[in-house]
UniProtKB/TrEMBL annotation:
Protein name: Membrane protein
Organism: Streptomyces avidinii
Domain of life, source organism: Bacteria
Taxonomy of the source species: Bacteria, Bacillati, Actinomycetota, Actinomycetes, Kitasatosporales
Keywords: Signal
Signal peptide interval: 1-22
Length: 124
């Protein structure tokens, strides 16, 4: 069974999120804060590409430390999208509201997981 600090599990999560951004971009477009320049679809695809690059970096031992630190920063950077999603769901069903609100504190363990992976990678 994989430990929560598993770099390959983290890489898989990132790769899965990247695929989701490409396969169903509309749901991600809706989370892009309006204050960002450009089109929401551009940001959706850019974040998917970033997730794929981070996944590859975390998966490879030589780049794992830097990629895991970048992943922690990425998880912090996408937090405003989760806040927007929760705010936009305030008039939706209780189940949708609960899911979007539950995502907010989940960013903390994701950031900590990425940091643990970076520390486990050593100082290469």
């Amino acid at each position: 069974m994989a430990r929560i600090s598993s770099p390959m599990l983290l890489a898989g999560l990132l790769a899965g999120a990247a695929v989701a951004h490409a396969a169903a971009p509309g749901q991600f477009d809706a989370t892009v804060p309006r204050s960002l320049p450009g089109s929401p679809r551009g940001w959706t695809y850019a974040s998917g590409v970033a997730e794929l690059a981070l996944a590859a970096g975390v998966a490879h031992p030589r780049t794992r430390r830097a990629a895991a630190l970048a992943t922690a920063a990425f998880f912090v950077g996408v937090f405003p999208a989760n806040v927007k999603m929760a705010a936009d769901a305030r008039h939706r069903s209780p189940a949708v509201r609960a899911v979007t609100l539950a995502r907010l504190p989940l960013q903390v363990p994701l950031v900590l997981w990425a940091r643990r992976v970076s520390r486990g990678a050593g100082g290469r």
